[in-house]
Specification:
This protein is α/β, with parallel strands linked by helices. The chain has one domain: Flavodoxin domain (Rossmann fold), CATH 3.40.50.360. Helix content is 37%, strand content 19%. The chain has six helices and seven strands, in the order βαβααβαβββαβα. A five-stranded parallel beta sheet has the order 2-1-3-6-7, sandwiched between helices. Strands 4-5 form a two-stranded antiparallel ribbon. About 2% of the residues have low confidence.
């Protein structure tokens, strides 16, 4: 069964632009693919452990710290949870990530999540020709694809603020590190910069989400 992992990084459960566009995407996808498994990971409601001193020593590049049995109880709980998040990510065939942009970057909880799933030896590894992602790891899924849905008050995909599009550029780079080349972005941007066009901007993004979901 195909699994779509739907990751949201917004603290509000409202009609925020990143959420409304991504919900439209998922709803359309569900209609077209009724037998697929859709898993929603709300990063603000989930337990996403931060990498602390114990885990950093254990999960360094290469791992050089204490064994799992040597960790204290709190660190063991974190290590188990990180392993769950990694396994969930690896098991997903398709991934949707939705977030707002705050000060030119995504919310911190999304970075914490990325730190949990980007694990040397599991989702990427060092090789003679440099870093290799999922496609270079025996036993992991290949052919994953990602849709990133990004909402921002200013236009970041082009124009004078393009060089500040850190959020999408970073996610694209990380997914490439993990061996995922199929990465598409839906922008809902400029709603604060062009307030008189806000609804038009949102409608355009909704339409793009609907069309892309039909063939994702």
């Amino acid at each position: 069964m195909t699994t779509l992992l739907y990751v949201t990084a917004h603290p509000l459960n409202t009609d925020a632009n990143s959420l409304s566009i991504s919900r439209q995407f998922v709803e359309t996808y569900r209609e077209v693919n009724p037998n697929d498994n859709i898993v929603h990971l709300d990063l603000y409601m989930a337990d996403i452990p931060q990498i602390d001193a114990n885990l950093l020593k254990r999960w360094g590049q290469p791992p050089s710290g204490p064994s799992f049995d040597e960790l204290n109880p709190e660190a063991k709980v974190k290590a188990i949870r990180i392993r769950e998040l990694v396994e969930q990510f690896v098991a997903a065939d398709k991934i949707v990530i939705a977030n707002p942009v705050w000060n030119f970057l995504f919310p911190p909880v999304l970075k914490t999540y990325i730190d949990s799933i980007a694990v040397p030896g599991i989702t990427f590894k060092h090789a003679d020709n440099g870093l290799r992602g999922l496609g270079g790891l025996v036993g992991t899924a290949t052919g994953k694809k990602v849709v990133h849905i990004q909402a921002s008050g200013t236009v970041l995909s082009h124009g004078r603020y393009q060089e500040l599009n850190f959020s999408d550029n970073y996610l694209r780079a990380v997914m490439k590190l993990l061996g995922i080349e199929d990465f598409q972005t839906i922008y809902v941007e400029g709603v604060a910069e062009y307030k008189d066009q806000a609804q038009e901007i949102k409608n355009k993004a909704l339409q793009q989400a609907t069309e892309l979901a039909k063939n994702f």
